[in-house]
Fold this protein.
Amino acid sequence: TSRWKYHLIDDKVNGIHGLLKGDVDKDGQFDLLANSAQPLDPYPDSLAWLKPPQNPRKADRWHRYIFANKDAPGLSHYLGFGDVNGDGRPDASSAAKGGPQAIPGTGEWFAWWEAPADPRKPWEKHLLADKQPGATNIMPADVNGDGKVDFIASRGHGRGVIWFENPNWKIHAIHKTLKEPHCLTVTDMDGDGDIDAATCAYGDEICAWFENDGKGQFKTHIVGTEQQAYDIRSVDMDKDGDLDLLVAGRGTKNVVWYESPIK
């Protein structure tokens, strides 16, 4: 088979750890969000979104907009995307693990950035919590069914899966002690109309999903063991109408999927 053609999107946002698809400027085309997770020039400790040109096959680069300039220090990890404050504009969220690899005094936070009317301009940062060792994942979702957007988050280089309740961002535990839940997927796993979550805990070597009762109380279901994974996706792998879990096992050196028994 012939090789696929290579198209460069960007080569200035360095140390990218998270890459996410979303329509930032609401023009009907997907854009990309990326983090400059390292303190590297020209955009150290920053967050960016990348807009495709009119003809992405022929263009040299995509249009780059730094919306959080040096505003995400401490080894940021993954990104979330969605309208947090109900103004009709999608916002972004991220987390930074901190720790000995980071510049001292940086990281260990969860935050979201409020998009302005013109998303090409700087976005306003809102700190949700600091002193969160190992913070990695944070995704917006209405957890308790009150019509407000909350956040589900994990400390993938620490312990625990949590959620932040809008509007005061009170922290609630989903699982307090889970070791290194480095990945996170947020979706309705069981089809009952509310938002659940799933992760793989690298340190505990388990894969689990968390069943929401619709009000923000969660029950843990262990679906697999002896699995050291850094990434997870909720996908209907066998086309039977329910969501399965697709897992990339960094430590176990495998790619596996767990079949949901719901259908």
Remarks:
- The chain has two domains: 1-134, 136-146+180-263.
- The chain has a mean pLDDT of 97.
